[in-house]
Amino acid sequence: MSFVVGIAGWGLVYILAVEQKASAKQTIQYNSNRALEFLTDEIRLGRKIDSDAVVALDEAPDFTLPSGAKPIVVFQVPDVPQRIIYYTRPIEEGEVWEGPDVIERWGPRFNEEGQYDETEINNPENWEASILIDSIDNTAHTPSCETGWQASNTDSTEGFNACVNPDEKLVKLNLATTTSNKTWREDVDYQVENMAFAKSNIVQGFTEDTPVFTLNNKQLILAQSANVKFEVLGGAITCGAGGVNIPVTTYLYKDETKQTWDTSSPLTLPNQPAGTTFDVKSVKDENKEFCSKKDLAVSSTDSDNPRVRVLVNGDPVPDVTPFDNQTTIDVFLWDYIEDGKISLAENQAIYLFELGSNDDTGSATFDLQDNVVLTTVDKTD
């Protein structure tokens, strides 16, 4: 009886340990993802992310770095007088947090609306540090920065580190968390990465600048009165491998009305009122003279169509191979690519069209460079 009871007791302990470990894994994943989501959202308010977090501490004279702490993400937000700082530090004896490290944030508090508290934003001497997440791993996790990017703290290879791009607008965040229990055979570890972009669109008073345009699916809508320019950057499509070049016609629709446009030069439409909508349409072999008497039309009104994409600043360049060694997307976008990302002004967007294949994105002919169109929207004075 003692033997049977002992086996049953051991089985119960084992089941409880497995359930506890599974629950801990779920918790640590949830906390890690939410922490990076919070940090990413705040970085979006920023003007720039400092590539050297240690040097940037000089821009926050009211901040004192705790003993053993390491600054990781330091960024500037418009109309906020000092830098906002995220750093790691080891937990101290008697703290309720789980170690070995925690991530703390120093900056103005948020109010109930999720905006900076107006009562203290201009009083950094009153800002207090608060813990974002605990259970940060303190073992080596060397950041893998892309060519030209810089580790924000070269002395930090622990569970939280970051890489900043050369123009200090993009940051790659790396987070590693861990938790343990005496009854588990091994620790529960979790690693997650995220990319954040400093958009710089918050001003004093905590209201967003009205963007000059918005994209509703793939339709461009003016948010305020603006001068709008469209221009064709190029394109390449042939009738099969080694075949003749196929002409492509580009149309512009303003409020669903076709505009007259000689696409050999840019089309500028001045003083367009807020609320005006624009759509771009590409038509292959419109006169059916070149390729099997077939044409194919793709429009930005086709919101679910993978054969048209609209890219804005910070979007990744589509990783597609051009058909039959045709000109790559990179060539048409040469002036608008930086570190593998689309580099545009906030008032620009690029349309990519695929006219040589159907909706099969895995097809050898699907290369998204059959027609490339740039739009620039400048608000009127």
What do these coordinates show?
- With 381 residues, the protein is α+β, with helices and mostly antiparallel strands.
- The protein has 2 domains: 2-197, no CATH class; 213-379, no CATH class.
- It has 3 helices and 22 strands.
- The longest helix has 42 residues, at 2-43.
- It is globular and about 85 Å long.
- The N and C termini lie far apart (90 Å).
Give the topology.
Blueprint: H1 2-43, E1 48-49, H2 53-56, E2 70-76, E3 84-90, E4 101-106, E5 129-136, E6 150-151, E7 160-164, E8 170-179, E9 188-197, E10 213-216, E11 219-222, E12 226-234, E13 248-254, E14 257-258, E15 267-272, E16 277-284, E17 296-299, E18 308-311, H3 329-332, E19 337-338, E20 341-342, E21 348-353, E22 371-379
Antiparallel strand pairs: 1-2, 2-3, 3-4, 4-5, 6-7, 7-8, 8-9, 10-11, 11-16, 12-15, 12-22, 13-14, 13-16, 16-17, 18-21, 19-20, 21-22
